[in-house]
Amino acid sequence: METLDRPAVRKLMAEVVAVQGKTLPDDDTAKLADIGFRSLDFSELALRVEDEIGDELNFEAAGLRSIETIGDVLDLLVEIQGQ
């Protein structure tokens, strides 16, 4: 199974927000609410990661509730690829 590193996941995240005419800030501490990144956007990003790695990601609801920043999203998606 292939895995994506943090820069690769960030690139996919930038593509997801670009579809909405937005630019992903360089600052990983930027709040998702401030950039308009919603749960639907997260789902789209997760699907893109799955397509790239050729495997399904396993999420826990508790882990998803603690996501507040760009960095949180990147950390989670990089971490769960190895599970």
From TrEMBL:
Signal peptide: none annotated. Residues 3-81 form the Carrier domain. It comes from the Bacteria. Coiled coil: none annotated. It holds the Pfam family PP-binding. InterPro entries: ACP-like_sf, PP-bd_ACP. The lineage of its organism: Bacteria, Bacillati, Actinomycetota, Actinomycetes, Propionibacteriales. This is Acyl carrier protein.
